[in-house]
Amino acid sequence: MSVELNALRDQIDEVDQQMIKLLARRLALVEKVGEVKSQHGLPIYAPEREAAMLAARREEAEKQGVPAQLIEDILRRTMRESYASEKDAGFKCLNPELRPIVIVGGQGQLGRLFARMFRLSGYTVKILGRQDWEHADELLQDAGMVVVTVPIHLTLDVISKLNNLPEDCILCDLTSIKSKPLQAMLDVHSGPVVGLHPMFGPDVPSLAKQVVVYCDGRGAEHYQWLLQQLSMWGASLCQLRAEDHDHGMTLIQALRHFTSYVYGLHLSKENPDLAKLLQLSSPIYRLELVMVGRLFGQDPNLYGDIIFSSEENTAMIRRFYQCFTEAMTIIDEQDKARFIESFAKTSQWFGDYSQKFMSESQSLLKHANDAIHRG
Ligand code: NAD
């Protein structure tokens, strides 16, 4: 039997090696695509092309007895690689006349990412770091655009120092909250102003499909090229009023980070053996643990600043706390009927999204399971 098995395994190894060669060929082609897109100023992410290509491959795969989802998984993973490598070919510069871009906080995590993207697009980038304020006038005097990306609690103070920018200079920021920084920028500078919030961390392989929220400040016609440049990097733009952005972030950021923080804090007090928990965990628990644990691998100042940034956040967290306390009475009273009733009501509220989320999470869980190695 082992001879038979070994012969089959040898053939599988050979097929895998062919797959590697084919992938190498595909990546080389993608590199050329990156160069062409860069020359012609085309965005790295083309949703229609991606959808049409996936639909065609799914159909072809099915005809050959290959599960459609298998080819889609392989291609999506390959495309992620492609977007990252296409990015390295650089991007067409949409505003070649722009004077230097000064990134205040450009040595920070997000600042470095944006400095790299602007340089890949042919712009001259200068960094104004914490120690550079003595020479700030020199750095800022010919700035075409200033990007503020410093820790949230320092942002208003830093913006207030930008009171002598050239009139036509664009002033923008990347802060995770928007109302106060946008107002501060409008107060300090009379030229074009726009607030940006990249809805991703600095560890993304490329900006393909990543969301960037923008809040118009003043002189929108002067920074359209910037929005187009972000699209060319693959980002999906979302225009919002600063207040609406901050309101949305009470749930998307403040409450989520706070509940993860409390969960992690509680876990640390319970002090279970994490290795054992992982050994026992279902894919969904592993994902949950990973999502909570990753918070504690990051800068507490960033999350603290986000959570403490508004009264609205505090009010939202307090309402969640009340909801938790009310839900606790169901447990205290061992009232299973009430539990089922409130569960059904909530499920009704989610409506069709429940099923949508079921299938989306199934695919995530399969990926999480694939990544596990149980030695
Ligand atoms: P960071 O701490 O990594 O970087 C901040 C940089 O600012 C550092 O290099 C620091 O030396 C510099 N700095 C501090 N004080 C300064 C001053 N007075 N003058 C000039 N530079 C100064 O922080 P980060 O994670 O890159 O976050 C920066 C901004 O990006 C924040 O507003 C944050 O809300 C936003 N943001 C971060 C993320 C993320 O995941 N990291 C995501 C979206 C938005």
TrEMBL record:
Pfam families: CM_2 (PF01817), PDH_C (PF20463), PDH_N (PF02153). Pathway: Metabolic intermediate biosynthesis; prephenate biosynthesis; prephenate from chorismate: step 1/1; Amino-acid biosynthesis; L-tyrosine biosynthesis; (4-hydroxyphenyl)pyruvate from prephenate (NAD(+) route): step 1/1. In the C-terminal section; belongs to the prephenate/arogenate dehydrogenase family. Its main location: cytoplasm. The gene is tyrA. This is T-protein. Residues 99-361 form the Prephenate/arogenate dehydrogenase domain. Keywords: Amino-acid biosynthesis, Aromatic amino acid biosynthesis, Cytoplasm, Isomerase, Multifunctional enzyme, NAD, Oxidoreductase, Tyrosine biosynthesis. One of its GO terms (molecular function) is prephenate dehydrogenase (NAD+) activity. GO terms for cellular component: cytoplasm. InterPro entries: 6-PGluconate_DH-like_C_sf, Chor_mut/prephenate_DH_T, Chorismate_II_sf, CM_dom_sf, CM_II_prokaryot, CM_T, NAD(P)-bd_dom_sf, PDH_C. GO terms for biological process: chorismate metabolic process; tyrosine biosynthetic process. Residues 1-90 form the Chorismate mutase domain. It catalyses: prephenate + NAD(+) = 3-(4-hydroxyphenyl)pyruvate + CO2 + NADH; chorismate = prephenate. It is found in: Cytoplasm. It comes from the Bacteria.
